[in-house]
TrEMBL record:
NCBIfam families: PRK08278.1. One of its GO terms (cellular component) is mitochondrion. Its main location: mitochondrion. The lineage of its organism: Eukaryota, Metazoa, Spiralia, Lophotrochozoa, Mollusca. It is found in: Mitochondrion; Peroxisome. Keywords: Mitochondrion, NADP, Oxidoreductase, Peroxisome. This is Hydroxysteroid dehydrogenase-like protein 2. It comes from the Eukaryota. GO terms for molecular function: oxidoreductase activity.
Length: 368
């Protein structure tokens, strides 16, 4: 875990969607420093399926050492946002940090996304982030070491991250575009504007509610990895740390924290990658190693195993960008029936053809 240093003591942190999940985890982390925490969320009464309200979160923040101020805020409502900011400034004397965490998600295709749902996602994700930033910036400009941190992904323009959920991607990227633009706009003023995104799926009550069972939880990390990464970013010099699209575990590694198993819901279990992140060469090697096996033929029930699963892993993760980054030769040492080995080479060539590569140039198959 990232140790608290006390750097955020007395700072006022305005967090949207802080009644539960990642937002609440960040609230509790900064509270340990003795920060003032504005819990800005809609949940005044408990949801039948989702635990936590702004008031229960406030109790936890106070117990953790912070000074909580719960505010009923629908970030789609300009008047409510402005009023919450005014109340926070009146109570604490200013705002030093804004966390744009509130978000809406619907992983539905274009024909399955009613405009009401599209408007909801864009009103909360893109417009809500812009509105909260606009409302807090006059006070951030007066603050010492001011930060805006959006829980949003890098702007990955690969079509696969739009296909199947165009509306959600547009809305989420709207948050990231705020980082891209505002970081440059307020760079000379010393206001840091950054994004933070988890490398893997994060287990929350919301994920459980929408259908994530035990098998999904096993492949997730806890909210603590995001809150620890956020704390590290917020502790940095704002004039030297802006315009970045951070990934949670990379932030931790930059501070010498290399044990990521402590954040796994089930240590040692394979993790589910989050949206918008292409798997890099090292992660691909790990997936291939974990997927491969000794069998070299279909297992009889229509599912491939061993070599087949290995190539499923390769094909799922290959992209034009990754091929260029790797730019390497591979040597496969195989044993078994020659028919299976020939099938292996044939499947590999099919993958290579998809990316316009030459098997002769990239693959050396050693048959034993």
């Amino acid at each position: 875990m990232a140790a608290n240093t006390g750097k955020l003591a007395g700072k006022t942190v305005f967090i949207t969607g802080a009644s539960r999940g990642i937002g609440k985890a960040i609230a509790l982390k900064v509270a340990k420093d003795g920060a003032n925490v504005v819990i800005a969320a809609k949940t005044a009464e408990a949801h039948p399926k989702l635990p936590g309200t702004i008031y229960t979160a406030a109790e936890e923040v106070n117990k953790a050492g912070g000074n909580a101020f719960p505010c009923i805020v629908d970030i789609r409502n300009e008047e409510q946002v402005q009023d919450a900011v005014r109340q926070a400034v009146s109570k604490f004397g200013g705002i030093d940090i804004l966390i744009n965490n509130a978000s809406a998600i619907s992983l539905t295709g274009t024909l399955s996304t009613p405009m009401k749902k599209y408007d909801l996602m864009n009103s909360i994700n893109a417009r809500g982030t812009y509105l909260c930033s606009q409302a807090c910036l006059p006070h951030l400009l007066k603050g010492k070491n001011p930060h805006i941190l959006n829980i949003s992904p890098p702007l990955n323009m690969s079509a696969k991250w739009f296909s199947g959920h165009v509306g959600y991607t547009m809305a989420k990227y709207g948050m990231s575009m705020c980082v891209l633009g505002m970081s440059e706009e307020f760079r000379s003023d010393g206001v840091a504007v950054n994004a933070l995104w988890p490398r893997t799926a994060i287990w929350t009550a919301a994920m459980e509610m929408i259908g994530g069972g035990g098998e999904i939880k096993e492949q997730c990390r806890t909210v603590d990895i995001v809150s620890d990464a956020a704390y590290i970013i917020l502790s940095r010099n704002s004039s030297e740390t802006t315009g970045n699209f951070y990934i949670d575990d990379e932030v931790l590694k930059s501070e010498g924290i290399t044990d990521m198993e402590q954040y796994s819901c089930v240590p040692g279990h394979r993790l589910l990658p989050d949206f918008f992140l292409d798997v890099g060469p090292e992660e691909l090697k790990i997936q291939i190693r974990e997927t491969g096996g000794s069998q070299t033929s279909p297992n009889g029930n229509g599912n491939t195993s061993g070599v087949g699963r290995t190539f499923q892993a390769i094909q799922q993760q290959l992209s034009d960008k990754l091929v260029k980054e790797i730019s390497a030769s591979y040597q496969f040492e195989l044993s078994g029936k020659k028919t299976a080995l020939h099938l292996f080479c044939f499947c590999y060539r099919l993958v290579l053809v998809q990316y316009k590569l030459s098997c002769k140039e990239t693959c050396q198959c050693v048959v034993r």
